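user: Kindly work through both lines:
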Amino acid sequence: MQPKHETVLAPVEDTTKWVAPETAQQLKNPTESNEATKAEGAIVYKKNCRSCHGKDGDGQGAEAADLKTKPTDFRDTNFSKQSDGSMLWKIQKGRGDMTAFEKDLTEDEIWKTINYIRSFSK
């Protein structure tokens, strides 16, 4: 009689996912989401984000085809599940083709831009 062997599969990390640190995920947007802050965020978005992420936030901006990594579609329901803190961290730090805006934009500008980006998924 042969002993029974149990196969246990360990979870494999999905390296394609971009996950912000837990401390960043917990950050709350201190900027009220209203028409005024969204309008200010729209100005920042048009100047810094639209060329890759598209005018409608669909990831189909004019420069998207030239990038190695497809820009995020802000209308996607999985994207909208991210916390504002995660978005802040990703915008600040960047990765690959995604520009790091930590030195170019203030936190206030980024929070307002997040308010605007959230309007794509509604």
Remarks:
- The first helix runs from residue 22 to 25.
- The chain has six helices and no strands.
